[in-house]
């Protein structure tokens, strides 16, 4: 755990202090996710994405955070319909020393810089289909009101005091560092200069008087909270990592800076000589969104889930819950943590020139394609690697060939000339395996497919609840392969509608395959909303038939009527997902004939 090397207290003794600045890595604030194992009757769920720092243009790590939140939120809406039941926020963090310095270097006012970069995030998220209900900027008046009220509550409870802070400070990283995290490297003039051991950025010795939050009083309450809520932080390794941090000494936090040094921020109420530090300022955004300090916010808090990058775990899992407890509020319902993206095995870096522009990727691979790639390949527990060839291979294999090819086979005029959802024949495919007779065509593998498909919606829901969207997509992809095997096994293109022996089984094969496609499309809506809409429309599934609450696979097999049986399919929509590697595009064309 990072610690400050030198501390001297004024007016308070007995506890070491650490600045809220103390961290490494980029700042982008918590993000939302779905409340785990929600009772479908729960009426409120509040998801937050990180509010992203406007010191640089957005990259794929920012988009990944937003997509995780978006998929969880969309899944929740499909389970619990009604826009009033779900809120989903994102936004930009616009205060701090780096913004102040960057604006000065560019010769513009800080707000001009914030306006420009915040607009880039808004445009990216709109382009990527992020379905947020609110985009907050910390420079908004409503946020200043919330932050200053929150500060006043902490002060009225005796949790803030003034003290002298002294230690190494890295302006580039906006954090204080302990002695162990500082090293000495030759500077431009050849002299040895102190730098951050992790980032390599210069550091300087800083000494100032500021306000301190009595974090040390919350060590045991935080431990009790986590031990009584083992799913409060997911995935599990991060949960145990936080518990391990809480076994160490928990110093008090510096939560303000001298306004003469940092003026681009929210002033401390009643003390214009101090500016509220950017992390406390930014964390309160989660309350601002839902109306804090007005009473309305209580209907949404703490039914809240944050999604955050692992680099900001300590701020969200220790400092933020402690601040909330100090203000008389409960910690958030869930904190979902994800790891980072590397590029060809290397960390993304401006100096290496390998920062991936998500806008270019959305254009190159399509919006749904790139959404699918990031959520299919991203594993929250460990860092994931990006390279172009991987994207092309995955999307061509799973979306163009497997899913798109399956649709083409089932809707091709030669196989399905009537363009309908054919009837299911129970004598060809009886509900009990092992039956024999002249009309029975179903094989053991076909019953395995029905079983896998019947359990798929519940399995996917459990993966979403456990923050394993990649596993949900893996399960869908596995069933797509199984369904293609079913179609390949029974080769409907070899059967004839004119044959009394073939026709019932041909209709049944197509009926089963179309039912599988309907389930796939319904389950893919949170990840690939446009592609799923295109597929469901092609199958003739109306907007009111796309929820998860009543998703029932192959009802005719279980003796129930099927509302789609005999229904005309929707209009032809072309390729579901065009291949990116055109050298093998002839395979898709062959499936359409």
The 3D shape can be described as elongated
Low-confidence segments, given as residue ranges, are 1-41, 585-593
CATH-level-2 architecture of the largest domain: 3-Layer(aba) Sandwich
Q: So what's the oligomer here?
A: single chain
Helix vs. strand class: alpha/beta
Number of helices: 17
CATH class term of the largest domain? Alpha Beta
CATH superfamily of the largest domain: HUPs
CATH topology of the largest domain: Rossmann fold
Helix share bin:
25-40%
Quote the beta fraction: 15-25%
Number of domains: 2
Mean pLDDT: 89
Query: N-to-C terminal Cα separation, in Å?
Result: 63 Å
* Biggest β-sheet description: 6 strands, mixed
Radius of gyration: 28 Å
> Care to count the β-strands?
20
